[in-house]
Amino acid sequence: MEKVIVVEEISPLWLMLIRFYRLLRYKIFYIRATQKVKRSAAFKGACDKGIIQQIDLNQRITSFCGMNTDEAFDNINELYKIFVKDQLILKAKELYADDNIELAFKKVLNEKLARFYYLDDMLFQLREKFPQAKLFVIPSNGTERVRSAGDEAYFYLCTRRILQENSLKYKHNGRCPFPKLLIALSFISWQREAALLYSKAAALQLWFTARFLLGFFFPVKAARKDFRYAVMLINPGVQFANKVQKVDFLVDDALILRKDVIFISEHKLKKEFRKYMDDNKLFFVDDIYANIGPKAISELFGFLSLLFMKKPSFLPIMEAYLKLIFIYAAWKGFCQNYKIANLVAFNDVGIKSIGRNVILKNENPAMRAWHYEHSISHRIFAATADKPLMSLRYHSIGFIFYDYYIIWSDLLTQYFRNHLQHIKEYITVGCLWAEHTANIAKGMIASRILDIGKIKAAAGNYKFVSVFDTTFGDDLMQGYDEGREFFKHVESLLKDLSDIFVIFKPKKTRRSMVKFCPEILDAYDGFSSHKRCCVLPEYISPSEVIAFSDLIVAVPFTSPAFEALCARKKAIYYDVFDKYRGSILDQVPGLVIHDYQNFTKRVKELLFETDEEAYNKYLDTQAKGKIEPFFDGMAVTRFRKLLSR
Description:
alpha/beta; 6-stranded parallel beta sheet
């Protein structure tokens, strides 16, 4: 009988084990390999000799933390019926006194269900490819960028057992071809995760006890303050770093006054960030856990003790329950000191946001929770008629709980609804950052781009083409090969057009590129030394680049090109591998370019043959309404008006 072993993702450890399986006369296949392995001589040699072979499954890895999400969203409500009477879920509903807290559990289960369906589909296809073989499959611990706890095999078996008992559909009905040793190791990892959860619960119990006792000797000072607006500092490093899309971009002291706004960070801000807040007279709280007092804690002892009084539940539910207890303590304590009328956040869609928003609305039923889109790079834009297997939905934005969702384009409304979000109203305001771009172009916001000597020296002598890349990865929408080819074509463009100057705005840091794709970093180093190129430092914002440029070239379908269009700046997406023909944005003539010949032609056309009047006519007749309905660079103003009503 033929013996086959398939490794989902080969890492350096697996290179050491290949010789062992060769001695046992196994045929060795792999689905993916990490970039580190791909660069190794041992791996290349083994592939050249046919010792290991890549196997192509009819699957698409569309994100390092989201696979087979469509199947998960389609089946999550059926799965949730299995857990709806779980004691931990019932106790969480009792604690929060609101059924909306169930969204937190659905969100966690949905992510796990997506991973189950991915593994199940992989096993099903492998059995079809090797129907008579003695087959062993080694699932990876996640993907190259994100690692799991190493419990993939046991997780799959555990989940399948749950589905078997409740008649939920799945594909692979045969014996699970995991090696027994792998299952044993995976079970140990599962138990280790359970032990870690119990340890966290015990530590939280001790911390609550200490805070409860100290609260009598050092009570939290109650100084109730009301604010009309609260802005969450979810990612201070990003929010403070961008000097154009400033952390306080909504505060204009006309519609929204700084005295009416409180900025909230869960953790202590860096000294430089605190200085910015103080210098600009912005009120902030940067440790919400400091508000936790005896009153909030006293409610929680019984709920936390429940974890130790029952047999282990499904681990994802236990983990969510523990987080929700901590969230309850933090925000219940916050509400003792502060009352807010509007909460504003971005990229804040985890279970923390669900628990927080439920508490804030229970404390003040009139409170309105707002979430705004920070970018436009959603999977829906990559959809094409001939790629029906591409998973469009993304588990991260499922089951979120806000009153209003501020979006850039009407194209996204139905897409978000398909994520089973709990939103009262989706409101299209246009591209937020296009207003900053427009204001920079008008001289209303200062730009630092001419402080860069190479660009200043080139000004007036060349047309400026700014290039925006994306995060490349074989476990992402754009693979490493796509990134390499994209840069080769930009290099060719430089050779073919002698009267252009190319500005690169990398999305990732050098540190990240060194780790995952040094070849792309090598390309940037090469461009840096070119006399008609400049690779920008991190402190320059995309809006500054767009406002300065004559043309934006971007990898599909990143936000900068969208921002440029909405600010009436020339922009195109270059689809170097012709993957997105027929996609939504490809329906706008001349926007998505699919080959180098037309790429060069379109760049020449826009730079040297299309004046401002002609381009505005193109936007109004071909793009307006299809991309966003305004094209006026006033989205932030619209958002402020909505908030201030």
